[in-house]
Amino acid sequence: MAIVINLDLMLAKRKIKSRELAAYVGITEQNLSLLKSGKVKGIRFATLEKICERLDCQPGDILERTPDQDSDTGEPDATL
Q1: Where is the composition biased (Acidic residues) (predicted)?
Q2: b/e per residue, 46-55, with b = 16+ CB within 10 A?
Q3: To which CATH superfamily is domain 2-68 assigned?
Q4: pLDDT at residue 75 above 60?
Q5: How far is the C-alpha of 23 from the C-alpha of 39, rounded, in Å?
């Protein structure tokens, strides 16, 4: 399972700049950039809540679960 972050899409839909969102949420633009690129391992619920508040959206509008490429075989993953 992979989690895809659609933050760029929501920013474009709402016509909000990354700089504005970062300032509203109280994080650096660099950290927001890492989040948008999916290079983070986690996000605090408080941060997610502030993002959703400013973008007027639900967490599911930003986060999307996609199946792994290996899951099409029906066999369990080799790593646990």
Answers
A1: 69-80
A2: ebeebbbebb
A3: lambda repressor-like DNA-binding domains (1.10.260.40)
A4: no
A5: 20
- The span from the CA of 75 to the CA of 15, in Å, is 43
User: Cα separations (Å) of 8 from 67, 70, 78?
Assistant: 21, 27, 32
| Confidence label for 78 from pLDDT (cuts 50, 70 and 90) | very low
Predicted confidence (pLDDT) per residue in 37-50, tens digit:
989 999 999 999 99
pLDDT of residue 70: 57
Domain extents in the chain: 2-68
Render 5-69 in DSSP notation, one character per residue: E-HHHHHHHHT--HHHHHHHHT--HHHHHHHHHT--S---HHHHHHHHHHHT--HHHHEEEE--G
**pTM of the entire predicted model:** 0.80
